[in-house]
Amino acid sequence: MLVDDDEDDRDFFLSVLETIDGSLQCETAENGSIALRNLTEGRRLPDLIFLDLNMPVMNGKEFLKEIKKHKHLENIPVIILSTSSDQATISETARLGAVDFVTKPNKLSLLETRLKEIFANPTFIRG
Fold first, then answer.
1. CATH number of the domain that 68 lies in?
2. Helix, strand and coil percent figures for the chain, each rounded to 5
3. 19 lies in which domain range?
4. Are strands 28-29 and 78-82 parallel, antiparallel or unpaired?
5. Predicted structure pTM score
């Protein structure tokens, strides 16, 4: 799942996923509120959540706090995907439960490389 309010960023992300593996499926949401609603409606849960921080309605930090309140959602790995690279923000999101932090690269090839690293890491995949 990708939670990001920027349509271009969602399109770039989905394009890179298609390049990596056409069989990967990725649901998207424009903010944390929509994502939380989708996750709590009993749909199939994602293996990973990629989460932007700066979004309207419910931002990424608020979403992290809320997802940890739900027993069936609390163990889904959340990876921050943000334009921020501030160390205080990285530390805070880790304390809130994020398992990784990726600063959005300015090139698709860099995003592809980083996503390949993430998908190759078995600790990010729920069992």
1. 3.40.50.2300
2. 45, 15, 45
3. 2-124
4. unpaired
5. 0.91
